[in-house]
Design a protein that fits this description.
Elements (H helix, E strand, L loop, with lengths): L1 H30 L3 H30 L8 H30 L1
Length: 103
């Protein structure tokens, strides 16, 4: 069970990290006035955030069903990735709109 949890945590880190990277790429595309690409990247970012949330939800369900998820450095790292990805995504939406309005 521990290996399954660790695998889910690694998937969570990967999905959240990908989401954050996609949001940064979207900002860069908007700065280059490529708003179509920025939109495409933000759609991909949303998909990665859904994937991250599904991993997180799986861990929550495991815990509520009697399989506690150990609080490890890896788990804390994963949660940091999720929170950072959410923040960067939210800021990217705002920044892209500001760039679009100024264009």
């Amino acid at each position: 069970m521990a290996n399954e949890i660790e695998l889910t945590i690694m998937q969570l880190i990967t999905a959240a990290g990908d989401a954050r990277s996609l949001a940064i790429q979207a900002i860069r595309a908007a700065r280059a006035k490529n708003f179509e690409e920025a939109n495409r990247l933000m759609i991909e970012c949303d998909k990665k955030m859904v994937e991250a949330h599904q991993c997180q939800t799986g861990l929550i369900f495991a815990e509520t069903n009697g399989s506690p998820v150990p609080i490890s450095l890896l788990m804390i790292h994963a949660q940091d990735h999720v929170m950072n990805a959410m923040t960067v995504k939210d800021m990217a939406v705002e920044m892209i709109e500001m760039i679009r309005a100024a264009a």
